[in-house]
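Entry 14. Structure prediction run on the chain below.
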Amino acid sequence: MFGNNIKLFLIFLTVFLIVGIAIKIRSNDAVSGIVWGYKSVICDSKFEFLKKNCNIDWKNLSINFGVYDPEGHFDSINTIAIEHRFIKWTEYQKGQLDDFFNHVSSKNRWPMITIEPFSFDNSDESKRSLFDDIASGKYDEAIETICLDFKNSKNPVFIRWGQEMENVTGRYPWASNDTSGYIASYRYFVNKCREIDGKNFYIWSPVGHSNVKGYYPGGGFVDLVGLSVFEFPQWDINNYGKTQSFDEIFSQRYRVVKGFEKPIIIAELGVTGDKDFQKSWLINAINSSQKYPLLKTVSYFDAVDSPGVWGEKYPTPDWRINPEIFTSPL
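Output returned:
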């Protein structure tokens, strides 16, 4: 009996040490990806109560998880390395991100901030002149206020400026056919922000359409390439005749951007539908991630989308999921 207790103690001591090492690795290397090796110990265990969510191939998993989580559903989830926030630079107030930076630091996470460069008054004229106005310095105060606040983050910030620029739908004023204007504005922002706070990483983040190469600002201005991947079954059935798997969506976008030879982050990942469909789709997505060597991070968009974005005939998709799918086997 005493011998069995010693064995059990040694098993749990080993697991504890491996968990500690894994967490230490995560905190030091959020860009290059981490291997949650301790999960293979848990998932191979004979103790059934330890084997939660072992339908995910934790043994071979080498990506970080991130989340956009405005409602705090993932606050207690221990596998989240990056937490995401969106800000509109024309509405930003000094110190607005301080509480968020403190929150992510307390969770041993790194912050990712998407900066949406909307025009001042959102008029048609200011939308058309956005890139010229950026170049002339009209948005310098907004840039300086935001980037000065980035200095308050204890960890480096992943900065994603002007996302989905090649998806010209009228939703974003920076998403236009003016590729040279976009590139000049992106570079202007990065140069300004680097002068203020040099510790951060910059994400150039298209959707991943085939026309994206004309918007690339150059390797010196990009630390990571971001992509967006959403599975909206009703929309896909109407447009493609069927739902699409993660591989069917992501593999095409991966091929478009892998030539830039930058680490890739799925900055926005979402799936809607019933809970069983969401879970099955996500598990397949996570297990498929190891097929893409440049993919380092997957950040889930856990929120309801903006009304009307997918068209008037579609309901507003709700991407929120049960966060337990991202819970480690512990």
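The chain has ten helices and eight strands.
Filed with the rest of this week's runs.
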